[in-house]
# Entry
Amino acid sequence: MAKKRSKKFWVIFWSLAVIFWVSLYFFLQFRNDKMQMITKTIDFLPFRLEEKEEYKFIAYFADYLLKKDDQEKVFLVLFQNDMELRPGGGYIGSFGILKVKNGEILEIGTHDLSNFDARIPDTQEPPYPIKEMLHIGSWKLRDSNWSPDFSENAKKAQYFYEMGKGEEKFDGIVAINSKVLTSFLSVTGPVTLPSYPGTYDSENAILTLEYQVEKGYAKQGLEIGERKSVMNELAQEISQKIKTLDNSKKIDLAKMILNDLNNKNIQLFFKDQTLQFQTQKAGWSGEMKKNWNNDYLMIVDANLGALKSDYYIKRNYSYTVDFSKERPEARLKIIYNHTAKEKDWMTKEYLSYLRVYVPANSWLFDSKNLGEIRFGNELEKKYFASIITVPIGQTKTVELDYYLSENINEENYDLFFQKQSGLGNVPVGISVISKTGENKNFPITLQNEWEMKK
# Structure
């Protein structure tokens, strides 16, 4: 039987090494100095201006975590599997609780959501179509990230935590997607585990780990309760590798973590309003752009019953705005390519509840390859929604044609396009057709959010 590791390795790795490692690295070099000294030092580092500003944000967070103010700080950490995409990033299979005081870790612990959700009363009606597609009668913590806005999900997660008789009062809530593991291994290099077969590297780690916890453990004679112990050992090995990295590799790792923050693979929420403001300013809060009065677009999928099929789904978006019509028209094409070759324990026909968020007062007048369409208003936006399916090995193009809000015109046109957490970089083709028929094209790669100012 594999050697059982302490769960604290898993929590430290994800909630500290991933989120705050860069903070600690820079801050600890100067922890006896003032923040002004830290920011001046960052100004001399070999980074672009935007990167320097990002490191200053992280140093600000580090000061909050490490200062000796005799205040205990408690954080809820949500682990999201983006191979099973949900509106807020991925299916939440477990969570951790981290306590820090005067820069020291007081307590850490992890919890399996299958056990914790059993403590939550069956009183909350789940949002459509969770009951219909997953046959779940009540809404609980595992499905709390149903909003594309992380600040909403963070509040909902705490709500369900309290319903489950959780006693902690959180100062912050963090969501981490599984892609972060790939980021770390791309810097540390491959890892082999004494108690488990195979090598974990940036190319195969997510699939190898998924197979180990779903199938491999049984073949190795491990009890089902031990199937996730591989995560602890993997975290320990990676942590050891991080300690031996030279300065050049540490900078590479810092850049990878910043990239995950900027790509919404890590999302942060703080109760402290000043900290939350800094998080929003850095673009790491995972919030929707609510106070936006021009053109807006966000495409949100919820994998409901397609196993871990998002690993195989490749997406492309095409968006055209046409001002040559009597009223401005928008045409959105969403191309899904299911690259899996056959059905197995991990994948099958892709099944998703699609929501497309657009400006309020927009009007859908045509669509293709959608089922029954539902309409709603949320977060100061309108959305069009439908259940879609994509067979294995096939490509499907979903199309929506709609009128834009009447206040949007060619003279003041500005588009704000936000990406769903949990997706990789998505190629997008954007076209704007003027009143005279002139077509301007903007090919982009959507990483987090993109704004086009005319």
Notes: Residues 175 and 196 are 28 Å apart (CA to CA). The two ends are 63 Å apart (CA to CA).
